[in-house]
Fold:
Amino acid sequence: MAKSALFDNKTWNFLCSLKLTIVLTSAATLLTVGGSVLMPFTPRIFSTLDSMPLGLWLSQVATREAGLTWWIPLGGILITLLSVNALCCFIDWLRFIKRRWRKCGEYLIHIGFVLIVVAFWWGSQAGFRSEKNGLMVGQSKPLPELGVHLKLEAFEPVLAPSGRPLEMLNTLALYRGEELIKRVQTRSNAPLLWKGLVVIPTSYGQTLRGGRYRPYSILTINYDPGAKLAFAGSIAMGCGVLLTLASFYRKRARGDRPDIV
Amino acid sequence: MTILQTPLLYAAFGAYLLAVLLYLLHLGLRRGALWRSAFILILAGFALQTLVLGLRWWQGGYLPVTNLFGTQFFFSWALAATYLYFELRYRIHAAGLFVMLCNLLLLGSVLPRSTELPPLIPALDTPLFTLHVSLSFVAYAFFAMAFSMGVLYLVQKRLQAELLPDLLLLRKLNEEAVFLGFSLFTLCMIIGSIWAYVAWGHYFSWNIKGVWSALIWLFYAGMCHAKFIRRWQGSGYAILSIVGFGVVLFTYLGIGLLMSSNHPLN
Structure:
């Protein structure tokens, strides 16, 4: 095979190397072990991580507490470098796919990981999260970022004998102007999903209106443009795992041992 | 049906206990009849445990892994299944004793607890939950087996004992346990992420349990690469298997029992 200047050099070999993978996974693991110890002791900083996209959290919260949060952006850099390493390995595999097609399971896992990391950064930068949105039946909430508005058309909380909410049956509709885009009845594990938007009923409350209590639904409204890409990455990774398992048993049946570098 | 479960659980525990004692005797006496009897007892214990699991599943209408009793019982069942997998495939006999001891500890600790099934909350009423939890515990069981093989590898390297499998086989078993555990754990993480997305609206949670689960995945992903590097083969890999299982135990029990997480065990 003819040598290519782009690929057959020290830099490319370094980017594709197993040793780089091990250094990066080890560094990210050790960093996260150390950093995550801080999480239970400083909830005022870290408990807000799930309520906003990471990009916003880094700019609004992490910068004020840099001494306690520096490990998260550094971990992000290490994971990004690991995904570059995985992408280079995948490209290198593609170059020799005729000889190495039996390894397609392993490399599907690699590309799945890359897609998930890209999707995560995309969602962290371009997404939004909004919790505790109270809506009464008939009320709407505009979502200007997406040019649509969300309307609660029906609402029925299902309560346990103790009064604890068990299930929130909400009929939610998305409109662009007057045009209905989507209408679904949501319940546990069945949210409204539309182009990266996910609307989840989380609880309910009551408010005094016109001399009587009226219930309202409390919704979580999140938007993650990378969600579909992350799902595609997950599918690639899942298929890769199943293919790798099949390949593993076939190889073991033939008595193959792992390559030694 | 609940009344039937307790004697079945005690019978399974008795079968495992006797099997472990016979394996220990086999280590000293090297009699084929001893390991064969031990193996039959483990098969019987596993069959009883599977029956209890099936009964509880049928009774509750869901995989009963929603509290500490349920998860420990399922983990113990997964450990026995993992042991049987390696025993049937490689005839490891007493080399898997650690896993059976873990199994005894787990099963022993659930015996005094109530076998009553808690009502299933709607958020957990999804096949995603069943798959996520079952895959995670089977993966944990493989990581426990990798730990066991790692310890034995280091012992065998020092003692060169005839009683234990040779170093090459121990290394192979360790690598296989790590690989299978990692594969199942990857599927567990994928399914858990999809479930988290439809349940909470985001597929990765910064809750301590989510962070440490990602950490386990990263650690074992690194191990799956390390086996191809000569310096990390053998002893290095054995030490990593031991450290990895420490991380797994902390994630399951340490975080589940001591910290506030989105995967409570109580």
Q: What stands out?
A: Residues 131 and 220 of chain A are 4 Å apart (CA to CA). The beta strands of chain A are 128-135, 140-143, 148-159, 165-176, 179-186, 192-194, 197-209, 212-223. The first strand of chain A starts at residue 128 and ends at 135. Chain A touches chain B through 50 residues (CB under 8 Å).
